């Protein structure tokens, strides 16, 4: 394995950390409706836990409500119960052929709690990126111990990994700041 291979692997893993962070943050509810809010809701479909998106379509009706249209009418009560039990603080209203999910306005206190959660998620992503840097540097040190690279190459690789880490940590900070601004917007 060469330094380039290690660097490509590290960059790929760091990108995945950013994507994971973005995925986690879409679950957090801001002031406006987003179909991604219900992505993690699981439905009991023929005794198997199934993601909501596989049994219904979720669309944004307006800035404050979602509409869930199941592909089978008999799923309406199960979907209603699953959304209530998902811990999102939502109270769906079941109709004859769809379910409306009104999103209550967030209080200032709730917004501040959400900002804390966003910061925790961001710190988790930063730690993951630093762990990738540590793993990559240890792989480079192993190459040096095996006399496959020189000390200069090892030092240059360590500096490159630090620059890569700094770039991705800055990206995490930007994602977290954007989500915080989105949450605090009234």
Q: What does the model show?
A:
By secondary structure, the chain is an alpha+beta fold. The chain has four helices and six strands. It has helices at residues 3-27, 76-85, 108-145, 151-184; strands at 42-45, 48-51, 56-62, 65-70, 93-94, 99-102. A four-stranded antiparallel beta sheet has the order 3-4-6-5, with helices on one face. Helix 1 packs antiparallel against helix 3. It is elongated, with a radius of gyration of 22 Å. The model has no long low-confidence stretch (mean pLDDT 88).
Secondary-structure blueprint:
Elements: H1 3-27, E1 42-45, E2 48-51, E3 56-62, E4 65-70, H2 76-85, E5 93-94, E6 99-102, H3 108-145, H4 151-184
Antiparallel strand pairs: 1-2, 3-4, 4-6, 5-6
> Which spans of ≥5 residues are poorly predicted at pLDDT below 50?
none
How are the strands ordered across the major sheet? 3-4-6-5
Rg over CA atoms, rounded to whole Å, is 22 Å
End-to-end span in angstroms?
51 Å
Mean pLDDT value: 88
Subcellular location: Cytoplasm
Family: Belongs to the RRF family.
Keywords: Cytoplasm, Protein biosynthesis
Protein name: Ribosome-recycling factor
Brief synopsis:
The protein is an alpha+beta fold and 186 residues long. It is built from 4 helices and 6 strands; from the N terminus they run H-E-E-E-E-H-E-E-H-H. The mean pLDDT is 88.
């Amino acid at each position: 394995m060469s330094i380039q291979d290690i660097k490509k692997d590290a960059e790929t893993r760091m990108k995945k950390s950013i994507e994971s962070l973005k995925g986690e943050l879409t679950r957090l509810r801001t002031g406006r409706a987003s179909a991604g809010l219900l992505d993690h809701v699981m439905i009991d479909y023929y005794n198997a836990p199934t993601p909501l998106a596989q049994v219904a379509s979720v669309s944004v009706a307006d800035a404050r409500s979602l509409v869930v249209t199941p592909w089978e009418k008999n799923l309406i009560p199960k979907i209603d119960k699953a959304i209530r039990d998902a811990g999102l603080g939502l109270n769906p209203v079941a109709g004859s052929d769809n379910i409306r999910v009104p999103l209550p306005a967030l209080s200032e206190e709730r917004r501040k709690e959400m900002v804390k959660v966003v910061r925790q998620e961001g710190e988790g992503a930063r730690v993951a990126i630093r762990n990738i840097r540590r793993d990559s540097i240890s792989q480079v040190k192993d190459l040096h111990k095996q006399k496959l690279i020189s000390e200069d190459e090892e030092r240059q690789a360590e500096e490159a990994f630090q620059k890569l880490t700094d770039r991705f940590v800055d990206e995490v900070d930007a994602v977290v700041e954007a989500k915080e601004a989105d949450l605090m917007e009234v």
